[in-house]
Each structure stands twice: as C-alpha cells, then as structure tokens.
Design brief:
472 residues, alpha+beta, 14% helix
C-alpha cells in the first residue's frame, strides 16, 4: 500500500495546466490518454490540449494541506494535530511540505493489491456505525469523533423525499466511521437502532455504478447532486467512473464520504487525469486494480473483495472499457475489438469467484460488440429484471442537458452478475432529474449560424444504475 504519509500535497482549483512534454495528458473530448509529446493536439480527435497558465498572475496557489495518517482528513498547513481525530502530524511530514519535495514513486501500487483506508480508532470501538450530524453542530465534530465509542447518536431520516427529487442544495455533515465489521450491518447501509444483519434474516445489499462525467460544467453542483442521491439511496458499495482529482476532492469533503472506505488514496489520485474509484461501507479485505494490456486509454479493472459475513465474500468489480472515439481523419475509431477483449479478460478473471458483480461504463454497443456479458453463466441484471424496458443510460433525448448533441441512445452502462449465495431483487436507474434552478449555455451550429442554447443541468451525462441483491 502506498504510504499515506507521503501524500503531502493539496489539490489545486480546477485550472488548465501547462503541459509538460514529459507527461501524458487526457483529452477532455474523447478521453484518449495521449503519450508524452511536443504535440499540442489529441492524437485521436485532434482537439487542442489544455492551455498554459504559467503567465497568468491572477491564479493563486492555495496553502498546502497534510493528510492525517489515521483518518485521512486533509488538514490545513498551520494545524499540528488532525482537526477530526487529534492525531499529530509527523515532523518529517511538515518538513517535506516546507521544502516542497515531490514523491518520485507515486504509482508504485498500480496493479497490486492494497488494503482500504480505515478510520482512526482512539480506543476500542464496538459495532461502530456511521452517524450523521447536522450543520449546526459542525464546530463540535472533533469532540464527537473523540468520544464516538461511547456517544453515538443517530440522525433521523429525512421524510417525504421521492427518488431523484432531492434538492441540489441539500447537504449532510457527518463523522467518518467506516464499519470495521460486516457481520452486523443495517439492511439499508445506514445503521438504525436495533436493526442489524443477522444469520436468521436475508441480507440486502445495494451496489451503485455511476459515470460522474469529468466535464467542467457546473462540476461542484453536479457532484453535490450525486452526493444527495447517495444519501437518499444509501448504497453499500459505490463504483464511480471518470473521477478526476477535482471530483475526488469534492467528494472527499462531502458528509456522505465519511461513511465509506475508499479504493483510492490521496497519493494515487494526484498522479492521473481520471480514474475509476470504489467505495464500500462493508468490511473490505482488499482493493486491487489490473490494467488492460490492450488499452491505449489507460483503462483497467478495479476489484473490491468484500466480507459480507464470516465465510461469505462478495467481489464487486468495475471498469470503464475502451471508449469509441469517431473523429478525423477516418471517423472509424470505435475500438470495438479492444472493448470486447477487455470484457472477456475481466469476466475470465472474475469467473473464478463464487459471488461477483461486474459493473461500470462498458461503452457497450450491442450491434458492434455483441452479447454482454460475453460469457455464459453470467446474468445481465437489467435484462433479467427489466426486460420490457430499453434501459438507455446515455440518452440525448431524455437527458435534456445533452439535447444539443447528436442523437445517441445507448445502454452504455451494464451490471453483470454471477451469484451463488445471492439473488438479484431489483435494479433501477437514478439521476434522471434535472438539478433545480440550474442551467448552462451550450453553443450549437445550425446551418451557418451559431446559436446559444440554455439547457438544464443533470448530475451527469450518464444515468446511474442501482442494483439490489439479497442472500438466498
């Protein structure tokens, strides 16, 4: 595991950086990972690279922060103790911040198994459950955390809220308390008094997959809306695609984040343009990632091995398979062959396990790519539970935020299951409603005239898929 103490940097605001010819960079149009080069345009779609900010004196760099080695909270530079758990910063950590030394081995864990981040335990904690506190007690967060073992209060559930109708301005404040055991876990992720998993009752788990869209269109408000969906639906496991360092930072400072362990450390996320990320409220034996050998876009398979209870393990895997990138000069870069091979490679690796959920943005096109999942013995969750519904997770007609784009309606996002001890009980689409009182301007060329359209903003260009499974 990459040492968290090496993560001595803070994220900069969303700005376009000067490209170093020795660094690879991600095209914001087609997501192609361009190799180090002196060229200033994408090798696939010829889009321009990000502009330099080296001569812009208006951009100020914020003061550095240091991550707590115990609970991972990003603390201000001037603090010598963690504002959440009270753990003191090491002298070597502050010295490195002052000198600005970089970590030369940031990606040493890529492809290896590493354990999830854990909350700080100041004392013996029994059946530690996630808690939500209201905004008016923000100043007492540290005191609550220090006494969390003895003083746990449950926040009442918000009432009268329908699916996907949470106000974008709504937010939660919480204390980080990822569960250290999964033997006793609430049916709906957030523990309720007197409600735990027991061996006499079936266990219900919720798994969410969501491409959050790395486009810089109302990013903060979109990510907050996704956070509201998480607070509403309470998934046990979350699989995100297209997470950028800025999105990671937004999520990390959200109230719901404190209830989960994360597959990505602060060090790892600083080294990449965008990536997949997994979060779990259940006990995780390990997180791992395996890069696809044929990917020119840096795509990989991310795996979380989750302990549901003693002698019962669930593997949840996610990926963002190779994206089609039609563009000049041939307009035929669909990458179907690469995508199909990646799907087969993933399924063959996961097929060794008894209970597996493989979900994510597969960029799947049934006409080009064929059947999904590509191997017998696996179930397409949406096809099984909603055979009468088309299930387009990318739809330029229903998603009015994309209505200025060329028409595209595809079931790009999929959930494939191979379950021995579980059965699928439900699957649904979330994030289909526009964010209240939020619009953006989109330019569209109509014949020879450029028109400016005012369009609504949704949480993402994709819809999320929420899977529900239970023990048989």
């Amino acid at each position: 595991m990459v040492s968290i103490s090496k993560s001595l940097f803070t994220l900069l605001p969303k700005i376009k950086l000067n490209l170093n010819p020795t660094m690879s960079w991600t095209c914001s149009s087609c997501t192609f990972l361009n190799p180090p080069s002196q060229k200033s345009s994408c090798q696939i779609c010829l889009s321009d690279s990000p502009l330099s900010i080296s001569s812009d004196p208006s951009i100020s760099v914020p003061k550095p922060k240091w991550p707590c080695k115990a609970c991972t909270f990003m603390n201000p530079y001037h603090s010598i103790s963690c504002e959440i758990c009270g753990n003191r910063v090491s002298a070597s950590g502050l010295a490195t911040l002052e000198t600005g030394d970089d970590d030369d081995d940031l990606s040493s864990s890529v492809g290896n198994v590493f354990l999830p981040l854990r909350p700080c335990n100041k004392g013996k904690v029994i059946n530690r459950a996630p808690i939500m506190v209201q905004d008016d007690v923000k100043d007492s967060v540290r005191a609550r955390c220090a006494n969390a073992a003895n003083k746990r209060k449950n926040r009442e559930e918000p009432s009268g809220v329908e699916d996907d109708e949470v106000d974008a301005a709504m937010g939660y404040k919480g204390v980080k308390a990822a569960a250290t055991k999964a033997i006793e876990q609430s049916d709906s992720v957030e523990q309720e008094p007197g409600k735990t998993f027991s061996t006499s009752k079936s266990k219900v788990l919720k798994i969410l997959t969501y491409n959050v869209w790395f486009a810089d269109i109302e990013m903060n408000k979109r990510m907050k809306a996704i956070g509201n969906l998480i607070s509403l639906h309470k998934p046990d496991v979350i699989c995100f695609q297209e997470v950028t360092p800025e999105i990671y930072d937004i999520f990390q400072h959200s109230g719901w984040w404190k209830m989960y362990s994360c597959s990505i450390s602060n060090v790892m996320e600083l080294t990449r343009g965008y990536f997949c990320m997994q979060l779990s409220k259940l006990a995780v034996k390990s997180y791992s990632c395996k890069p696809f050998s044929n990917s020119i876009m840096g795509r990989e398979l991310c795996i979380a091995e989750i302990e549901v209870e003693k002698d019962m393990t669930l593997v949840v895997a996610t990926s963002h398979l190779e994206s089609p990138c039609p563009g000049p000069p041939k307009w035929d870069q669909m990458y179907s062959k690469e995508r199909v091979q990646q799907a087969k490679e993933a399924v063959e690796l996961l097929d060794r396990k008894q209970n597996v959920v493989f979900c994510g943005d597969m960029n799947w096109d049934d006409k080009l790519d064929g059947q999904f999942p590509p191997t017998d013995g696996w179930i397409d969750a949406w096809g099984k539970m909603k055979p009468e519904e088309i299930g387009w997770t990318y739809d330029t007609k229903s998603n009015k935020m994309l209505s200025a784009n060329r028409t595209l309606q595809k079931r790009l996002d999929r959930i494939a299951c191979k379950l021995q001890d579980f059965c699928i009980t439900d699957v649904k689409m979330i994030g289909k409603d526009a964010i209240s009182n939020l619009t953006y301007i989109k330019e569209k060329k109509v014949k020879s005239e450029v028109k400016k359209l005012t369009l609504p903003v949704l949480p993402s260009d994709h819809y999320g898929l929420l899977l529900e499974i239970s023990t048989q």
